[in-house]
Amino acid sequence: MAQAKKPQQEDEPSGPMSPEQMRQFGEQARALNEQIIEAATKIGQDALQRYVDWLQVIAEGQRTLASSPQVSQMDWFASMLKAQADFTQQFAKMVGGMASYGQQPES
């Protein structure tokens, strides 16, 4: 039994790409790569800044504890836990802001 030939869709390739199609494809791929690099750079810079901020909080907490006349081990430990919790919360908020591609982290 002969099968009916399926009509060709316009968006299906009909053969080798023309030089113009190849150029357009290359431009689209390059533009997409640039968007990916830009988004990854921004996300990386934000993560680095949050990490630096966290280190500064830790350093300030350590300075405060070191300058206190009487600091118990429990006070020092509680201060470090609070700084860690603050960082974890900020990091979770940043990661949550990256849920969809190209979305910038929330500040």
What is the gist of this entry?
Helix content is 68%, strand content 0%.
Strand-pairing-aware structural class = mainly alpha
User: How many domains?
Assistant: 1
Rounded average pLDDT: 77
Shape: rod-shaped
Element-by-element helix/strand order: HH
Total helices: the number is 2
| Distance between the amino and carboxyl termini | 66 Å
| Percent of residues in β-strands | under 5%
Tally of strands: 0
- Largest β sheet strand count, sense and barrel closure: none
Radius of gyration: 27 Å
Proportion of helical residues: 55-70%
Which regions are unreliable across 5 or more consecutive residues at pLDDT < 50? none
Structure characterization notes:
- The protein has one domain (19-96).
- Helix content is 68%, strand content 0%.
- The model has no long low-confidence stretch (mean pLDDT 77).
- With 107 residues, the protein is an all-alpha fold.
- It has 2 helices and no strands.
- Helix 1 runs antiparallel to helix 2.
- It starts with 18 loop residues before the first helix and ends in an 11-residue tail after the last helix.
- The protein has helices at 19-67, 73-96.
